[in-house]
Amino acid sequence: MTFNGTWKVDRSDNYEKFMEKMGVNMVKRKLAAHDNLKITIEQTGDKFHINETSAFRTLELDFTLGVTFEYALADGTELSGAWTMEGDMMKGLFTRKDNGKVLTTTRVIEGGELVQSYNYEGVDAKRIFKRG
Length: 132
What we know:
This protein has helices at 15-22, 26-32, and strands at 5-13, 38-44, 47-53, 58-64, 69-72, 78-86, 89-96, 102-110, 113-120, 123-131. It has 132 residues and is mainly beta. It has a single domain (5-126), classed as Lipocalin, CATH 2.40.128.20.
């Protein structure tokens, strides 16, 4: 499938501002800006297996498109939500358990790169990954 493979973060756009809006403290924001995140995506039909490895943690996650699941961000923020497909774009709508606010995340392949976009409370950010 299109997203299958290993992706290493190459650059970010407005990511620190986004993390600030999410309530991530300054020390964790500075560390996350250089986390060397690597994501391995394996898709089989509507099922996904994700392996995230960074300087801070390793996480394995299995989900099925359209099925709600629980997830925690690296800073411990707990979310509940689901991924869906909209054409060639994965779209995730996740509700924070602590305040009920929604985080929207999308993944799309553009020019051979995986572009992961975020929106939270009107703040947009992107992380761009290259195959690696």
